[in-house]
Amino acid sequence: MSAIFFSIDTDMPIMVIPDTQAHANGHDVITYTYSVYRDTSASNPALERSKESELHLQKHTDPNYMGYITFEDPGKLFTYTADGKQELSSDQVEEIIEQISHYRDNPSMWRHLHQ
0.85 exceeded by the pTM? Predict the structure, then answer.
């Protein structure tokens, strides 16, 4: 699943990776959790792939990992889990949720990421 790259606070580059699960038929399915990283890679695809589909069962050691956001009830209820080396402010979390929601609400943008 492709990462989403954008900036918050006008100058903080962010990489959001949708967490996926492989099912028996081999297709990936988007879950409702999104891992958040400070993007220091200049959108490098190789670095993106190294972070894909990490489970939230173990402690993350990546210094750019900032936690994950769970869409409990899309459009209504969200949870931010700050289990990384860096923590986001509530305003930053809101801005990231708005960006993710924009992609979720506009699937054609998402398909563009996979081409």
Answer: no
